[in-house]
Design a protein that fits this description.
The chain has a domain of 126 residues. 66% of the residues lie in helices and 0% in strands. It contains 7 helices and no strands.
């Protein structure tokens, strides 16, 4: 068998029943291995920050892999509604692709929001004691006295005589010549 024939056969067999979930699972596996590894190799960050970031990145990909597979498979089941066998095969491929896209855009971010923070808090022994029992404010103590001699209170205002306001006259010509120039 020639090399060209081998390449042609491999490409044809890969393209016959291609599942898009396999491609994104391969990518997620590589990201799950290498991103935490590169994060831990960063010399500029503190060890605690590196551990937390690497754990988050690894957990994200651990959540992503089964989610891609499940969403792709579930979406592909919708092709059973198509009666024509050739169209059903195309519909299955297209629906798998839509399922994988939905997993990447909606399902995985939602799952990560629900799972990762509690898990990382548990791993790093972060306690929420401060949030459960907030510090009590001392609202009973007396506020310092403020001098109010020169403050305009209702009594002080009512004792002042009412005078006519001074109306200033503006030179319209001077006002219009000093404004912003447009053009």
């Amino acid at each position: 068998m020639s090399f060209n024939k081998l390449i042609k056969n491999v490409c044809e067999s890969i393209g016959k029943d291609n599942n898009p979930a396999y491609v994104v699972v391969a990518i997620a596996t590589a990201k799950g291995i290498f991103r935490p590894l590169f994060t831990m190799m960063d010399k500029k960050e503190s060890p605690e920050t590196k551990k937390y970031a690497a754990l988050r990145e690894g957990l994200t990909e651990i959540i992503a892999i089964p989610t891609y597979l499940a969403c792709g498979a579930l979406a592909g089941k919708g092709a059973k509604l198509v009666k024509d066998p050739e169209m059903a095969k195309r519909a299955k491929h297209n629906l798998r692709f839509v399922g994988v896209c939905a997993a990447a855009l909606i399902v995985i971010p939602g799952l990560c929001s629900l799972v990762i923070k509690p898990f990382t808090d548990m791993i790093f022994h972060k306690k929420d004691k401060d949030n459960k029992n907030p510090a009590k404010l001392d609202i009973i103590s007396k506020a310092p006295e403020i001098e109010t001699q020169n403050v305009n209170t209702v009594e002080n205002i009512s004792k002042k005589p009412i005078t006519n306001p001074v109306i200033q006259k503006y030179d319209i010509a001077a006002f219009t010549n000093n404004g912003m120039k447009v053009g």
